């Protein structure tokens, strides 16, 4: 697998969540050299004011100061453990609990405070590309999971063809594979749809779809 | 009133495999010191050291200079030497005035870069080669960061224009065994060779490649020209009369420039250093570095690194190559790209030049594709 690495960060926006906005001047000036504009998020009542819905993964990068406990609450996908945009942790105190909090926010790269100019490009490069890599791997994982679930349909479709056409397993499988490619579908989806088409229509006579209760609520069968 | 005096370090490898260029750089710096002294403003005492091309000596000598109270050093030619000494300058809060073209992707707060950034040398060369020579390249280089990175930038820019890099070959600095590489080039028959060899390796390559082409009845300069971002005037005599002509070079300065400032510079340089080596782009960059340093010292009134750095931002003057100014964001210089072709008389004929100085873009923010080229780099390099 080869991922296309992002190497030019022009047009990016760094949202920096830190207690002393502007104190990390090296971060801001180095980001400017890399074509990335810096904005500082206001912290009200211990919570960073970020409009999560307006974040754009192809533009925004969140820099979160690990020394601010609980200042950022962003939604992390429980399956991929990734936030909506790349997160880079600013590390002051190297306590495991603070590092863990940054990892839980989905940080894919870190920068030690005070920020050293020579470390910013590396951190940005790693943070964004690890985010892209993990997002792509998560998508692939989801795809593979869906196909794994579909293997049962493949098995059933092979047996169906063996019985109907009186062919061996390899011939039945080859036939299904050929037809799935012709239909431009993956094998699992094609088999699932084949089985649905071949399934007997439900016998409507004498079967109720639901029971209506007196108070109008429905009860599942 | 007593003149303010400053001690300034000057560190070039005036012996070793790339000493020819380094000696011209030292000359460029010394000429500037002399002119500053004659002008009667501040007084500068240069302290000259020679690491002899030995990487470990660069760090030791930098420490020695900085420990003696010197805050500014003009020096380094290779990127590996610059990267070696930067931690010393950061630790001791000194300023390195780096006067050579380089591969970019760096902007230390403790370095002032007066040589060309990649958007001022390799990208104009790709434009020229792709539009006028051809699209199939064979890359050779010395095996260190300059050639690796410059080839990467070259490959991405050429690929974006629909071109192809047929192969990349690297040899150790100072290596002169080229038979295998030249056979590979002649088998591949590229439209041109992109050369990132330095010093004696480069001179031997030019000679051997020309001879190999001649033996096969190939007019090398016309059929497989060699293009470089490093080749400069003092190196042409080192190549030898037999193979000196027809090589392309991308540079912000050629000594054949016809401007009053350059004519005066060449005359003063030749009078000061009759034994040579002749001036070069890197000699001019060293001259510029010292001139800018002196102007900043004069303005700052102190040699404190941060104050001088602040003073050099936006400094400008008319250099031999034309107007030069320091970009206050990146502390690289605005310079004027040019493409030249070497001639038998040891000069470059200027084929193309930018209309005005262009802004430095060390990270290629304005000029590189958003995503890296999808082509995988080879896992092993032939050394």
Outline of this structure?
With 221 residues, chain A is α/β, with parallel strands linked by helices.
The sequence of SSEs of chain B as H and E is EHEHEHEEHEHEHEHHEHEHHHEEEEE
Give the strand order, joined by hyphens, for the main sheet of chain A: 2-1-5-6-7
Structural class of chain A: alpha/beta
User: For this structure, what is the CATH homologous superfamily of the largest domain in chain B?
Assistant: Response regulator
**Quaternary structure of the protein:** heterodimer
Count of folded domains of chain A:
2
Tell me, what is the CATH class of the largest domain in chain A? Alpha Beta
Beta content of chain A: 15-25%
Largest interface: A-B, 18 and 21 residues
- Strand proportion of chain B, as a percent range, falls in 15-25%
Shape label of chain B: globular
The CATH homologous superfamily name of the largest domain in chain A equals Response regulator
Q: What topology does this entry show?
A:
The complex is a heterodimer of chains A (221) and B (383).
Chain A: E1 12-17, H1 25-33, E2 36-40, E3 43-44, E4 47-48, E5 60-65, E6 87-91, H2 96-104, E7 107-112, H3 117-165, H4 169-182, H5 187-198, E8 211-212, E9 218-219
Parallel strand pairs in A: 1-2, 1-5, 5-6, 6-7
Antiparallel strand pairs in A: 3-4, 8-9
Chain B: E1 5-11, H1 19-39, E2 43-49, H2 55-67, E3 72-75, H3 79-92, E4 95-98, E5 111-113, H4 118-132, E6 136-142, H5 145-160, E7 164-171, H6 179-188, E8 192-196, H7 199-215, H8 220-223, E9 226-228, H9 236-239, E10 248-251, H10 260-272, H11 281-300, H12 305-312, E11 316-319, E12 322-326, E13 333-334, E14 338-342, E15 348-353
Parallel strand pairs in B: 1-2, 1-3, 3-4, 4-5, 6-7, 6-8, 8-9, 9-10
Antiparallel strand pairs in B: 10-14, 11-12, 12-13, 14-15
